[in-house]
Design brief:
Length: 402
C-alpha cells in the first residue's frame, strides 16, 4: 500500500518515522507492506531523506492511482478541507490528526467516505495517542452515553499542575511552558480553552450521533486562575483542572469547557502534567477512563498510523461512524446545575449565608477575603445571587457532589 503524508511538521514527520521504524510489525498487522510514496510540504528539507519523495503540488498525489491512503497532518481547515474532500471523492481513504477539520467538517467527510466506500479516520484528533474515538464508535455502542469529562489539553494541564505544585502564578508558568515547547508562542487556543472546545465537540458528536458545532459550546479558559485559588483548593482537598465536558440530563444535552475543582475520589484528580485523561460514563457500563500522552510527536503519530493500518485492512469496506449532519441542539448552560467555589471580600462575609444559605467555608489564610463552596444550583440562579456582592473576586465550578 502506497500512502502520502500531507504536511511534514511535528506529526507528519512522526508518521514517516513510525512507518519506517515499525515497518515489520505494521506490515504484519495490516496484511501488506505500507510505504510512504509522497510527502507534501511547501518547504524544502535538505539533508533529510524525505527530500527524495517531497512534492509541492497536491494534484500529483490526488491523481496518482497508486495512492490508497492519504494522511493529513497540516492543521487548520484551509487547504486541508479541500485536499481531504478531493482525496475521498477520488476513492482514497484519509487518516487525520486535525481537530479543526474534524470538528468543522466531520459529518460531511464521513458521508462522502461512506458514499465512496472508503474511510475517514481521525483517532489522533482527540487525545493524541490515547484511543478514544474508536472505543466511542465501536466498543461502547451498547450504552447510552450519559457524560464525558476530559482533560483534553496537555498545555493547560501542565500549567495548572505546576501552579498547584509550586504555588506559582499563571504568567510565570506559561513562560516556562513556552520555553519547554509545551505552549505555542501565541498560546491563546490552549489557555482560552478553544483547543479543548473542538475536541469535546468531536466527542459529543460521536456520543450522540449528530453534529455539535463548537461555536455553541460555552468556553472559559484558565487565564483568571490564580495562586490564591490553589491555596483554597489545597485546603479543601481539591484539584483545579480545565475540563471539556458534555452530559445528557433527560432530553437535554449540555456541553462546556471550563476550569473546575474536583475531589480525590474522581478518576481524573491525579492526571497531571502534559498527560490527558478522558472519563466516559455509560448507562450500563458505568465509568470507564482513558489515560495517556495527549500530544507529542510519536504518541500522536502512532495513533495516525494505527488508523492507516485500519484503512488498509478495510480497503473497499467502509467502517460506519455514527455522526450525521443533523444538528444537535446544545441546551443553555444557564440551566446546568453545579456547585461553585467563590471568593469574596472580607467585608461581605456577613452576606454569604443570607444569599447562599448553607455553605462550606474554607480558611486558606488569604488576607482580606474569604472563600466558600455553595450547594448545587443552576448557573442562572448563581449569577443572580452573585449580584448581591460588590467584591466577588472569582468563582470556579466544583464537579460532583462530594
Amino acid at each position: 500500500m502506497k500512502i502520502a503524508v500531507l504536511g511534514y511538521g511535528t506529526i507528519g514527520s512522526g508518521v514517516v518515522e513510525v512507518v519506517e521504524k515499525n515497518a515489520a510489525s505494521i506490515e504484519k498487522r495490516a496484511g501488506e507492506k505500507i510505504e510512504v510514496k509522497y510527502v507534501l510540504d511547501l518547504r524544502e528539507f535538505p539533508g533529510d531523506p524525505v527530500q527524495d519523495i517531497l512534492v509541492h503540488d497536491y494534484s500529483v498525489i490526488a491523481e496518482d492511482e497508486e495512492i490508497g491512503v492519504i494522511v493529513e497532518t497540516m492543521g487548520g481547515t484551509k487547504p486541508a478541507y479541500d485536499f481531504v474532500k478531493t482525496a475521498l471523492l477520488n476513492g482514497k481513504s484519509v487518516c487525520t490528526s486535525n481537530k479543526e477539520l474534524v470538528a468543522a467538517h466531520g459529518a460531511e467527510l464521513i458521508q462522502i467516505a461512506e458514499d465512496k466506500q472508503v474511510n475517514f479516520f481521525f483517532e489522533a484528533s482527540v487525545g493524541g495517542g490515547i484511543p478514544i474515538i474508536r472505543p466511542l464508535n465501536q466498543c461502547i455502542t451498547a450504552d447510552e452515553i450519559e457524560q464525558i469529562n476530559g482533560i483534553l489539553n496537555g498545555t493547560t494541564n501542565f500549567i495548572l499542575s505546576k501552579m498547584a505544585d509550586e504555588g506559582a502564578d499563571f504568567e510565570d508558568v506559561l513562560k516556562e511552558a513556552q520555553q519547554l515547547g509545551y505552549a505555542e508562542k501565541d498560546p491563546t487556543a490552549d489557555v482560552e480553552g478553544y483547543d479543548a472546545c473542538r475536541k469535546i465537540a468531536i466527542l459529543t458528536s460521536l456520543a450522540y450521533g449528530k453534529q455539535v458545532d463548537y461555536e455553541d459550546i460555552y468556553t472559559e479558559g484558565i487565564t483568571k486562575i490564580t495562586a490564591s485559588d490553589f491555596k483554597y483548593a489545597k485546603q479543601a482537598g481539591l484539584a483545579i483542572k480545565i475540563f471539556g465536558m458534555s452530559k445528557k440530563v433527560g432530553s437535554s444535552v449540555y456541553a462546556m469547557v471550563a476550569p473546575q475543582m474536583i475531589g480525590s475520589g474522581h478518576p481524573l484528580y491525579s492526571v497531571n502534567g502534559v498527560f490527558n485523561g478522558i472519563s466516559v460514563k455509560g448507562n450500563m457500563l458505568g465509568d470507564v477512563m482513558f489515560y495517556g500522552a495527549g500530544a507529542g510527536k510519536l504518541p500522536t503519530a502512532s495513533a495516525v498510523v494505527a488508523d492507516v493500518v485500519a484503512a488498509v485492512k478495510h480497503q473497499g469496506d467502509h467502517v460506519p461512524i455514527t455522526w450525521s449532519s443533523e444538528k444537535l441542539e446544545i441546551s443553555s448552560v444557564e440551566e446546568m446545575e453545579t456547585r461553585f467555589f467563590v471568593r469574596v471580600d472580607e467585608s461581605e462575609k456577613q452576606k454569604i449565608q443570607d444569599v447562599f444559605g448553607e455553605v462550606q467555608m474554607i480558611d486558606a489564610g488569604v488576607d482580606g477575603e474569604c472563600g466558600f463552596i455553595t450547594s448545587g444550583m443552576k448557573e442562572k440562579e448563581f449569577a443572580k445571587k452573585a449580584e448581591a456582592f460588590a467584591q466577588l473576586i472569582t468563582r470556579i465550578r466544583v464537579m460532583g457532589d462530594e
